[in-house]
Design goal:
By secondary structure, the chain is α+β, with helices and mostly antiparallel strands. Helices cover 34% and strands 35% of the residues. The strands form 6 sheets. It has a 6-stranded antiparallel β-barrel. A hairpin with a 4-residue loop joins β13 and β14. The longest helix has 38 residues, at 35-72.
Length: 431
């Protein structure tokens, strides 16, 4: 603007200088011929020059006034907006947890012996009762035969002692035998009977060792990496397991929640079974859906949290033991809630408010009552209606009556999780 005014001033100065030179030339020529006529022309030129200056001054004043008017006119503020929606809002309690195998067995040998056969492959899913490892049973079969021979011998001795006892007993009335000899024979029979029973127990023990030679799966699960190969010698005293068997279907998740939330969870558990959703480490991918089974019987005083256990079918094997997950406990679902982006909320002396967009693209500060806030969505109970448009970005440049220029008119928000069209919110609702 300054450069343009300077250019106009220089231009007028040049024009006036040129007109002055022309006027002087005319005056000089006219004064020599006719002095009165020269004076008349000089007056006319002076009047024309004055009219021209007034015209140029008027144009400059008009341009300046127009620019001042444009500067004084209000500018539309570019802001981001979103629609207020009405939909069901699931209320989640979020806790950190880890996956735990429903059953885990470190399978070790209960006897000493050589491994003859390994009947599984690493990573294989085996059923309960399937044969996994065979240990050489021959030493224990020989022991069974030895114990059976000893049992046969002791039973023969027992029968002989019993027959003698019967003979001695029949001679007592005639007085042909002393009572002491009869009692001694009876004691011998009891001793031999005890020996026979001992032999039978030893036989049963040896047969049990043969059973231990065939290691079977105690439950249906997945076999891990094996630690032994055929030909290895194993002992009952070994500390390392031959293999680890884990049950993956079903599987459990242990997660924690603050102790203040436990009464609410316990109250909802009485009326229905609560669903639990397991999400990946980055909290973006849903892995599985299960059910809350129980709450631990004590609170950890160091953290002020309690453990909860959820069970998952895990049919697609998305969960693995010791895996870190984010557990979302579905506490309740609030029907037909009015929701808007959390970014639209502002705090002021009068409480929480938003900037409501009117049809003429002006805004109005509207006080709202918040019922639930978590993440990128907020549910309100008053102040807004579904279909209203609110400002979500650029509120620092606004006040009531400001004119705006919307950059977008998208939905309320892209919620982090949806379930059958329901926006997901997490956290405890305010009391």
């Amino acid at each position: 603007m300054n450069a343009s005014n300077k250019w106009r001033v220089h231009r007028r100065s040049d024009e006036e200088l040129q007109r002055t030179k022309t006027l002087n030339m005319i005056d000089s020529s006219c004064s020599q011929k006719n002095p009165s006529r020269a004076i008349h022309r000089r007056l006319l030129l002076a009047v024309a020059l004055g009219v021209l200056c007034a015209f140029l001054s008027g144009c400059t004043s008009a341009d300046s006034s127009q620019k001042k008017a444009q500067a004084a006119a209000p500018h539309a503020v570019s802001v981001a907006v979103a629609k207020v929606q009405q939909q069901d809002v699931p209320v989640y309690l979020v806790g950190l947890g880890s996956v735990t195998a429903f059953y885990t067995a470190n399978i070790k040998s209960r006897i000493d012996g050589q491994i003859m056969r390994v009947n599984f492959q690493e990573g294989q899913t085996v059923k309960q009762g399937d044969l996994l490892i065979v240990i050489d049973p021959r030493p224990y079969e020989v022991q069974v035969e030895q114990m059976q021979a000893q049992l046969f011998k002791d039973r023969a001795s027992l029968r002989d002692a019993q027959l003698n006892l019967q003979r001695y007993t029949t001679l007592i009335p005639s007085g042909s035998i002393a009572q002491q000899q009869v009692d001694t024979q009876k004691s011998l029979v009891d001793q031999l009977d005890g020996q026979v029973r001992t032999d039978q127990a030893q036989i049963d023990t040896a047969k049990l060792q043969i059973v231990y030679c065939n290691i079977t799966a105690p439950f249906t699960g997945r076999v891990g990496l094996r630690q032994v190969d055929p030909g290895n010698i194993v002992h009952a005293a070994d500390t390392n397991a031959m293999l680890v068997l884990t049950q993956l279907q079903p599987i459990s998740v242990i997660f924690t929640l603050p102790e203040d939330q436990l009464p609410t969870v316990a109250q909802h558990m009485k009326s229905s079974t609560l669903a639990v959703e397991a999400y990946s480490r980055d909290n973006q991918t849903k892995l599985a859906t299960g059910k809350l089974q129980t709450i631990d019987n004590q609170i950890d005083q160091t953290t002020g949290t309690a453990k909860l256990k959820a069970v998952f079918d895990n049919k697609d094997n998305q969960l693995w033991p010791n895996q870190f997950v984010n557990a979302n406990l579905l506490l309740e679902t609030r029907k037909n809630s009015t929701i808007l982006p959390t970014a639209a909320l502002l705090r002021g002396p009068q409480g929480t408010f938003v900037y409501l967009v009117k049809p003429d693209n002006t805004v109005e500060a509207r006080t709202v009552t918040v019922s639930l806030t978590q993440g990128d969505i907020t549910a309100v109970t008053s102040g807004l209606n579904p279909g209203d448009t609110v400002v979500t970005d650029g509120q620092d440049k606004l006040q009531t009556g400001s004119t705006i220029e919307p950059r977008n008119r998208g939905p309320a928000s892209n919620t982090s999780r949806t379930n059958d069209g329901k926006a997901a919110a997490s956290g405890m609702p305010p009391s």
